[in-house]
Amino acid sequence: MDTNKERQVEHLIHHTLRAGVSISATLLAVGLFVVIVRDTPRPAVAPPLSEILRLAFTANEVGWIYLGLLLLMTTPVALVMMLVHGYARTGWRRFALIALLVLLLLGTGFALGIRG
Q: Each residue's pLDDT tens digit in the chain (116 positions)?
């Protein structure tokens, strides 16, 4: 196997995880800090995705918290996507197929969760 390609895949996976967790932690921490300082009321039920995005991009602290949570939940999905790409790139087809199946299971679970 090409060690350089393997290292590139390792770095891709490392950076994907670090970016997802760091950005989500920052959004959560800043949002929570502002909510505490301003004593902002929080909704009893999570708003829909379109409302979360609207709130987050209008600098609303509750929107930042929900966006941070969404990003934290989607980071593993991004990781599995990078695994599929990385394994296929290095020629590890069996692992790429397994990662693709995991990605399909995640997608199925997401679709069923939205449906009800």
A: 567 888 888 898 999 999 999 999 999 999 999 999 998 888 888 888 889 999 999 989 999 999 999 999 999 999 999 999 999 988 889 999 999 999 999 999 888 887 76
Residue labelled with tokens 């197929």 = 97
Separation CA 39–CA 111 (nearest Å): 35
8 Å CB contact between 44 and 60: no
Whose structure tokens read 């800090």?
A: 33
Residue by residue, DSSP assigns 84-114 as HHHHHHHT-HHHHHHHHHHHHHHHHHHHHHH
Could you tell me the residue range of the domain that residue 37 belongs to?
Answer: 3-115
Give me the number of domains the chain comprises: 1
Q: CB within 8 A of 20, min separation 6: which ones?
A: 71, 72, 74, 75, 78, 79
The enclosing H or E element of 56 equals helix 49-57
